[in-house]
Amino acid sequence: MEPLRVGLVGYGGAGRGIHARLLREAGHHVTAVVTRSRGEQVHQDWPDALVVPDVDALLAGVDALDLVVVASPTGEHEAHTAAALHAGAPVLVDKPLAPTTEAAQRLVDLATTLDGRLTVFHNRRWDPEQLTLRALLDAGALGRVHRFERRWERFRPEPQQRWKEQDVTSGGLLLDLGAHLVDSATQLFGPVRRVRAEIRSLTTPAPDDVFLALDHAPTEPGHHVVSHLWAGGLVGAPGPRTRVLGDRGAYLVTSFEGEPTPFAVLDDAQDGGRRPGEAPHEGWLVRGAERTPVPRAPGGHADVYRAVARWLREDGPVPVDPRDAVTTARVLDAARSAATSGDAVHLDG
What we know:
Elements: E1 5-9, H1 15-25, E2 29-34, H2 39-45, E3 50-52, H3 55-59, E4 67-70, H4 77-86, E5 91-94, H5 101-114, E6 118-121, H6 128-139, E7 145-153, H7 163-166, H8 173-189, E8 192-200, E9 209-216, E10 226-232, E11 242-246, E12 249-253, E13 255-256, E14 259-260, H9 265-272, E15 281-287, E16 290-295, H10 303-313, H11 322-341, E17 345-346
């Protein structure tokens, strides 16, 4: 399959640190980049890439691009994505698709009207942790699940001075990490029918302390899954990354991307117990005192761009349906309302 020629909007933490790295890993080429201050970095990484100052200049050469990746600040996603769709380019947008449900829906509607191609970078669907959990659920190893917990916690008492911490409209952990958390929960356990939330700003203007409680639609009469989701920037003792409770046992992940938690002694024992050549493990299947390491499912974030290539080159399925991003935005909007009112917000089917 021929490599994709990619135009990248933004070359900061997301553009360079995530997208450019994964595009290279997947065998694609960044051929043009929108940036006003990081041109030297672009040429270090992609010597032949064209550096342009704005999206209009990028789209002037749209015929030489197979994909536009929007990795600009969240508040600019709608304008940049709309411009790329109007120019006829397939577009992948970093999450969240937009800061609000209304803005996200406008982009989906525009893509439909223009018969354009739009997808969203919910790369955490390709986490080994998520893939491993999906396999456990499909195998029925946990039985009937009643609770899903996931934490994205870190200790950053002196926050970074960047838009994600300072922009109260499009920054903050609710939109940044909350978009991942909600998408993971809905992908695994289906639509959300009720949202409760606590959202605070402890050290930054934008929210940096988030807790969401989601009641999913019933899977059978009298039974539904509850998701508890945390995102925090002032957490000196992070809890277990993932805990899923079912009537046949629990799935427990105690570290995340190499960062140990106070529970990581389990992972130390797990790694020490691996035999030479044995596949790595991803968490534990726990039944009371019985703990069994779970083999890690294959996959990784570069698979997003492999899926994008199949979508564009071979008419494969869309990697992430943008309507899913609208669903996530709807839950996040409900969380804001719930946190403000102190009451649960009910969502229609």
